[in-house]
Q: What sequence folds into this?
C-alpha cells in the first residue's frame, strides 16, 4: 500500500441476496487530496460509502485507515459512530436532517465530545455554556459564508430542497475531521451555491489539509477541484486517474452512454 | 401422563397462537403499523363465543360462534382503521404515534368489555369475569356420530386451524387480492401508483386481521376452564414474540415460532412446576426468556426499524504500518 | 374545612408521585424516543424494593425474627405499626435509605434491560418492556417472601410518629414534592442542554444520529438508568404512602395512565407532563371520592374512566398531536444565536425569522 494513503479499501465485496453490489473493489484515497468517485446509477457508490462507514460490514475484503499517528488500523465492520470518532464523516445522498431541530441545532449536533452531552455535565450549565456559544459562532459563520443566515432558526420542513442539501453537507463540515465522504453534495444546488460549496471544500483541503471523497453526478463541476477520480461500474472499479485522463478514457464514456 | 398432558396442551396452544400470531405479522407487513390493540381481537373473539353460549342456553355450534367472532373481530379491525390509523396516516404521524394510539384503543376496548360483562351479569345473573369452558354442540354431535372419543378441543382446534390456514394460503397466493396485498407490503407508493386502491386494501387487511385473530379466541374458550377479560394480554405477548422471531415479515416462520413457543412454554413449565412448584403465572417468563435471548444474539434488524449497531466491536485493530 | 385540606394533601401527594413518572416518561418517550410501555415495571419494582427495605430491614434491625414477623402476617403488621409510632429516627433513616436503594437497583435493572433491546425497533422496545411488567408481576405472585398474591402490608409511613394525621401527611407531601421538583429540574435541564439536543435528534432519526458519532444505545441506556431509577423512587414513595403493595396494583393500566398524562399535556415538554399529571390525578381522586356517591347501578364507574381517557388520548393524537403545551426550541441556544447575529449586524435583515 502507498504510504500517503489515508484510507485503503482492499478487495471489498458486498452481496445483497446473491446480487453483487460490490465486487473486489480496491481503492486508495491519498491523504490531503480531493478524490472524486463517479459512476452511473446503481454502480455501487453509495454501497461503498455504507461499507466504509459501517452501515453494514463487507462480505469480503478489508478497509484500512491511517490514524493521526501514522499507523494503519483495520476499521472493517466497526460501528458507524466508531468510524465517525476516528475522523471519517459522511453525508447522505437523501438528506437526513432532524425534522424537529432547527437548522442551527442540526448544525450543532455534529461536533464530537461536547461537554454538555454527558448526563452529569448537562445538569450544570456552567460546564457547557461557553462551548455552546463558540459552536453557535462557528455555525453562524458557516451559514454566513453561504448567505443563509436567515434560515438559522427555521425547521427543515420550511426549507427549499437545495437548502436542505446544503445544510446536510454543512452539518458534516461543522466539525474538523480528517476524511469527508460527501454523497452528491451538489445535487439540487443552484450554480452559485454549488460553486461556493466547492470553494469551501477546496479551501478546507488546501489550508487545513483535509481529505475528501466525493460522489457526484455533476461531473463537470467535480472535475474542477478533484485531484484524482475513480470510476465505478456495476460494482467494480472501471477506471482511475486524473480528471484529464478520465475524460479521455473511452471505457468511461461507454459506461456512461451505454454500449 | 403429565408429559402427555403437556403435549396436548402444547398442541392446542400451538393452534391458538398460530391463529393469533399470523394476522399480527400480516397486519404489520401490509400496513406497517405495530398494533398494540391486537389483544382486543382475541378477547372479543372469546367473549362473543361466551355471550352466544349464554344466550343460546349452552347450545352453541362452532360455525355460528366462528361466524360471529370473525365478523366482530373484523369490524373492530376496520373501525380501528377508520377512526385511528387512517387519520393518523393522513396526518403523516410517525410509527411511534400510531403505536401509542393503538395502545390507547386497547384500553378503551378492554374496559368497554368489562362494562358489557357487568351489565350482562346484572341481566343474566351469570359471572362473565371468569367463565367456564364452552362446548360446541355441532362438534360434539359429529364426534358422537363417528365415535371419536378424543377431547373436543383437539378436534375443534385442528379443524378450525387447518381451515383458516388453508383459506389464508389460497387467498394470499392464488388470488389477485393476495397479490395486491403482497404488493403493498413490498412498496406502498409503487403499489398505489400501479392502481391498487390503498384505502380499501388496508381496510380489508384489518378486517382479515381482526377476524382471524378473533377465531383464536373461540378456540381458547373451548379449551380453557376459566376465561377472563385478561386473556388477550397473555396471548399477545406470545404473538409479539412469534412475530418478532418471524422478523415481522415471514408468515411461515411466525407460525413455526408460535408452535415452538407453545411447546417450550408447556414443557419447561411442566419441569419447573414439578421441581419448584411454581404457578402457571410464571409461564410468561419462560417465553420471555426465549425472546430476550434471541434479541441479544440475533435481533431482526431492518424489519420494524432498528440500528446498524453491532455489539461485538473490535476497536481498530492495528495493522503493520507502511 | 378539614376535609378539603386532607383531600388537597391527598391529591397533591398522588399528583407529585405520578408527576415524577410522567416527567421521566417525557424524558424517555417524548425527548429520547424510547417507547416505554413498561413504566409500571419500574414503578412496581421500586415499590416492592421500598416495601422490603422498609419492613424486613426495619424488623431485622430492631431484633425481630423476620421469619415469624413477616409483613403479611398479623404479628408482623402490628409490630410494624408499633415501630412506626415509636422509633422516629430509625424509621426515617430506613425510609431515605430505601429511596436510595430503589433508585440504584431499579436504575441498574432498567439499564441492563434496555441495552440489548434498544437497537431494535421501537415496537419491540415497547413490547419487551410491556412484558417485563407482566413478568415481574408473575414473579411477585410466585414469591412467598414478597407476600405472594396478597402482597405486603404495614409498610410504615415515616412520619406516623407525629400523631397528627394531617401533619404527618404534610411532612410526607414535602418529601414527595421535593423529589418531584428535583426530577422536574433535572429533566428540564437535560432538555435544554446539548444532551437534550442529541436525544431529540436520536428520537427523530436514530440512524442518522449514529452516523454523526453518537453512541445511540449507550446514550439511551444511560438516560434510561436515570429515568427508571426515578420511577423506582416514585414507586417506593407510593408504597410508603399507601402502606401496602400487591401485584394487582401494578397492572398495565398504570402505564396507560402515565402515557395519557404526557399525551394530554404535550408529550415532549416537561411542563406539559406536569399539567397532564395534575389534571388526570385530580380527575382520578375526585372520581374515587365520588364513586360511592354515584354508585354503580349497572356497572362500576371505575371502568368508565379508562374508556374516557383513552378516547381523549386518541382524539389528541389525531387532532392536536402536540398536546396542550407543544415543545419549544431551547432558549439558551436561541439566545446565543441572537447574540451572534447582533454581533454580525444581521438581525434586522433576517427579520422575524431569527427571533423566536
A:
Amino acid at each position: 500500500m502507498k504510504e500517503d494513503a489515508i484510507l485503503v479499501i482492499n478487495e471489498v465485496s458486498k452481496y445483497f441476496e446473491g446480487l453483487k453490489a460490490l465486487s473486489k473493489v480496491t481503492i486508495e484515497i491519498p491523504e490531503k487530496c480531493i478524490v472524486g468517485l463517479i459512476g452511473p446509477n446503481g454502480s455501487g457508490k453509495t454501497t461503498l460509502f455504507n461499507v466504509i462507514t459501517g452501515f453494514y460490514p463487507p462480505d469480503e475484503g478489508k478497509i484500512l485507515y491511517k490514524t493521526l499517528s501514522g499507523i494503519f488500523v483495520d476499521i472493517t465492520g466497526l460501528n458507524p459512530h466508531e468510524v465517525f470518532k476516528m475522523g471519517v464523516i459522511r453525508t447522505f445522498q437523501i438528506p437526513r436532517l432532524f425534522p424537529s431541530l432547527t437548522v442551527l441545532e442540526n448544525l450543532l449536533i455534529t461536533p464530537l465530545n461536547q461537554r454538555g452531552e454527558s448526563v452529569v455535565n448537562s445538569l450544570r450549565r456552567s460546564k457547557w455554556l461557553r462551548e455552546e456559544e463558540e459552536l453557535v459562532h462557528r455555525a453562524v459563520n458557516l451559514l454566513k459564508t453561504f448567505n443563509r443566515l436567515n434560515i438559522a432558526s427555521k425547521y427543515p420542513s420550511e426549507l427549499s430542497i437545495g437548502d436542505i442539501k446544503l445544510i446536510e453537507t454543512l452539518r458534516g463540515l461543522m466539525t474538523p475531521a480528517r476524511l469527508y465522504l460527501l454523497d452528491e453534495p451538489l445535487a439540487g444546488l443552484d450554480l452559485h451555491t454549488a460553486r461556493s460549496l466547492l470553494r469551501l471544500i477546496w479551501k478546507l483541503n488546501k489550508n487545513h489539509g483535509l481529505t475528501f471523497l466525493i460522489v457526484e453526478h455533476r461531473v463537470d463541476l467535480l472535475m474542477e477541484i478533484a485531484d484524482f477520480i475513480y470510476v465505478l461500474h456495476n460494482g467494480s472499479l472501471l477506471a482511475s486517474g486524473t480528471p484529464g485522463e478520465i475524460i479521455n478514457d473511452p471505457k468511461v464514456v461507454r459506461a456512461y452512454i451505454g454500449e | 401422563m403429565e408429559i402427555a398432558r403437556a403435549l396436548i396442551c402444547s398442541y392446542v396452544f400451538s393452534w391458538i397462537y398460530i391463529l393469533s400470531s399470523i394476522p399480527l405479522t400480516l397486519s404489520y407487513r401490509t400496513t406497517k403499523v405495530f398494533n398494540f390493540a391486537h389483544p382486543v381481537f382475541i378477547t372479543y373473539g372469546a367473549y362473543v363465543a361466551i355471550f352466544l353460549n349464554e344466550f343460546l342456553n349452552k347450545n352453541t355450534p362452532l360455525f355460528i360462534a366462528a361466524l360471529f367472532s370473525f365478523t366482530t373481530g373484523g369490524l373492530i379491525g376496520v373501525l380501528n382503521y377508520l377512526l385511528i390509523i387512517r387519520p393518523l396516516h393522513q396526518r403523516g404521524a410517525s410509527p411511534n404515534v400510531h403505536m401509542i394510539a393503538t395502545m390507547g384503543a386497547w384500553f378503551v376496548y378492554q374496559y368497554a368489555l368489562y362494562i358489557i360483562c357487568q351489565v350482562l351479569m346484572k341481566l343474566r345473573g351469570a359471572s362473565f369475569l371468569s367463565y367456564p369452558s364452552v362446548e360446541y354442540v355441532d362438534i360434539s354431535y359429529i364426534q358422537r356420530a363417528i365415535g371419536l372419543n378424543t377431547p373436543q378441543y383437539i378436534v375443534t382446534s385442528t379443524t378450525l386451524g387447518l381451515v383458516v390456514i388453508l383459506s389464508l394460503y389460497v387467498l394470499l397466493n392464488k388470488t389477485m387480492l393476495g397479490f395486491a396485498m403482497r404488493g403493498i407490503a413490498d412498496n406502498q407508493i409503487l403499489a398505489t401508483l400501479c392502481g391498487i386502491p390503498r384505502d380499501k386494501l388496508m381496510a380489508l387487511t384489518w378486517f382479515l386481521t381482526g377476524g382471524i385473530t378473533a377465531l383464536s379466541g373461540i378456540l381458547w374458550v373451548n379449551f380453557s376452564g376459566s376465561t377472563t377479560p385478561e386473556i388477550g394480554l397473555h396471548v399477545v405477548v406470545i404473538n409479539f414474540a412469534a412475530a418478532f422471531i418471524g422478523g415481522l415479515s415471514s408468515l411461515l416462520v411466525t407460525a413455526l415460532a408460535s408452535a415452538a413457543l407453545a411447546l417450550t412454554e408447556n414443557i419447561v413449565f411442566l419441569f419447573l412446576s414439578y421441581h419448584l412448584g411454581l404457578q402457571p403465572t410464571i409461564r410468561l417468563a419462560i417465553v420471555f426468556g426465549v425472546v430476550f435471548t434471541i434479541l441479544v444474539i440475533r435481533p431482526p434488524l431492518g424489519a420494524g426499524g432498528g440500528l446498524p449497531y453491532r455489539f461485538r466491536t473490535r476497536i481498530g485493530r492495528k495493522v503493520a504500518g507502511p | 374545612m378539614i376535609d378539603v385540606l386532607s383531600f388537597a394533601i391527598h391529591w397533591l401527594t398522588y399528583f407529585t408521585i405520578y408527576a415524577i413518572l410522567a416527567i421521566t416518561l417525557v424524558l424517555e418517550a417524548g425527548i429520547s424516543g424510547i417507547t416505554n410501555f413498561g413504566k409500571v415495571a419500574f414503578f412496581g419494582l421500586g415499590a416492592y424494593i421500598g416495601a422490603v427495605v422498609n419492613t424486613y430491614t426495619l424488623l431485622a434491625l430492631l431484633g425481630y425474627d423476620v421469619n415469624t414477623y413477616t409483613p403479611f402476617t398479623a404479628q408482623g403488621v402490628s409490630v410494624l405499626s408499633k415501630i412506626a409510632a415509636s422509633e422516629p429516627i430509625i424509621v426515617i433513616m430506613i425510609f431515605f435509605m430505601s429511596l436510595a436503594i430503589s433508585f440504584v437497583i431499579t436504575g441498574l435493572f432498567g439499564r441492563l434491560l434496555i441495552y440489548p433491546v434498544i437497537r431494535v425497533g421501537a415496537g419491540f422496545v415497547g413490547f419487551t418492556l410491556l412484558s417485563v411488567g407482566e413478568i415481574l408481576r408473575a414473579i411477585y405472585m410466585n414469591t412467598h417472601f414478597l407476600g405472594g398474591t396478597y402482597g405486603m402490608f404495614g409498610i410504615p409511613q415515616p412520619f406516623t410518629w407525629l400523631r397528627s394525621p394531617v401533619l404527618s401527611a404534610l411532612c410526607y407531601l414535602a418529601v414527595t414534592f421535593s423529589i418531584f421538583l428535583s426530577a422536574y429540574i433535572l429533566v428540564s435541564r437535560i432538555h435544554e442542554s446539548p444532551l437534550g439536543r442529541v436525544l431529540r435528534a436520536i428520537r427523530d432519526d436514530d440512524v442518522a444520529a449514529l452516523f454523526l458519532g453518537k453512541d445511540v444505545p449507550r446514550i439511551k441506556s444511560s438516560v434510561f438508568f436515570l429515568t427508571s431509577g426515578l420511577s423506582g423512587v416514585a414507586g417506593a414513595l407510593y408504597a410508603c404512602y399507601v402502606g401496602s403493595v400487591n401485584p394487582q396494583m401494578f397492572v398495565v393500566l398504570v402505564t396507560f395512565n402515565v402515557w395519557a398524562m404526557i399525551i394530554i399535556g404535550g408529550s415532549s415538554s416537561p411542563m406539559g407532563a406536569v399539567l397532564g399529571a395534575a389534571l388526570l390525578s385530580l380527575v382520578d381522586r375526585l372520581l374515587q371520592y365520588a364513586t360511592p356517591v354515584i354508585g354503580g347501578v349497572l356497572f362500576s364507574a371505575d371502568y368508565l374512566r379508562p374508556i374516557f381517557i383513552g378516547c381523549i388520548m386518541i382524539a389528541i393524537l389525531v387532532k392536536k398531536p402536540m398536546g396542550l403545551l407543544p415543545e419549544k426550541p431551547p432558549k439558551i441556544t436561541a439566545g446565543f444565536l441572537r447574540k451572534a447575529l447582533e454581533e454580525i449586524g444581521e438581525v434586522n435583515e433576517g427579520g422575524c425569522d431569527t427571533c423566536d
